[in-house]
């Protein structure tokens, strides 16, 4: 496996769950991680925990459905770490529902689709 040491990794949906775990693992292995999500208190806590363990991390409050905030996240990574090597496009929702109660216009379906589909790599640069 190729080493992640020295890589700059942007992770969306990094305030909990798989994104948080990915950020911590990559930072532990020497990557610089830029975290994006909406819950700032979680992002602050995770960055502190990574830094306390000797890692390099920063965050930008980011709703991936907001183009300006995504650009701020990407720009923040370039400003703080010099470039972007990897984008982990993890932000999303995973609500559970029975098939019998599912409708294509339901609110959770729409929000899941928006978060998952609008956060595309087209906004990355560098
Ligand atoms: N866990 C599984 O078994 C599983 C299986 C298949 C796929 N997935 C996918 O893997 C990803 C992570 O899942 P998880 O289990 O770790 O869920 P999770 O703990 O709920 O994490 C979802 C993350 O996405 C963020 N997020 C949601 N909407 C966002 C938005 N509009 N803008 C920015 N960030 C947003 C949340 O942060 P904020 O609320 O702070 O913004 C949170 O950090 C999701 O895309 C999910 O669909 C998970």
Structure, briefly:
With 126 residues, the protein is α/β, with parallel strands linked by helices. It has helices at residues 17-28, 40-52, 67-81, 107-118, and strands at 8-12, 32-37, 56-61, 86-88.
Provide the succession of SSEs: EHEHEHEH
Instruction: Give me the CATH fold name.
Output: Rossmann fold
Number of domains: 1
The secondary structure category is alpha/beta
Q: Which residues sit in consecutive blocks of at least 5 with pLDDT less than 50?
A: 122-126
Beta strands, count: 4
Average of pLDDT: 87
Largest sheet: 4 strands, parallel
Give me the Rg, rounded: 15 Å
Distance between the ends: 24 Å
Oligomeric state of the chains present here? single chain
> Quick one: overall form?
elongated
CATH homologous superfamily heading: NAD(P)-binding Rossmann-like Domain
Report the helical percentage: 40-55%
Q: How much of the sequence is in beta strands?
A: 15-25%
- CATH hierarchy, class: Alpha Beta
Can you list the strand order of the major beta sheet? 3-2-1-4
Helical segment count: 4
Small molecules in complex: NADP nicotinamide-adenine-dinucleotide phosphate
CATH architecture designation:
3-Layer(aba) Sandwich
Describe the structure in your own words.
- By secondary structure, the chain is an alpha/beta fold.
- It has one domain (8-123): Rossmann fold (3-Layer(aba) Sandwich).
- It has helices spanning 17-28, 40-52, 67-81, 107-118; strands at residues 8-12, 32-37, 56-61, 86-88.
- It has a 4-stranded parallel beta sheet with strand order 3-2-1-4, sandwiched between helices.
- The longest helix is centred in the middle third of the chain and has 15 residues, at 67-81.
- The chain is elongated.
- Mean pLDDT is 87; it is low at 122-126.
- The structure holds NADP nicotinamide-adenine-dinucleotide phosphate (NAP).
- Residues 12-19, 37-39, 42, 62-65, 90-94, 115-116 line the site of NADP nicotinamide-adenine-dinucleotide phosphate.
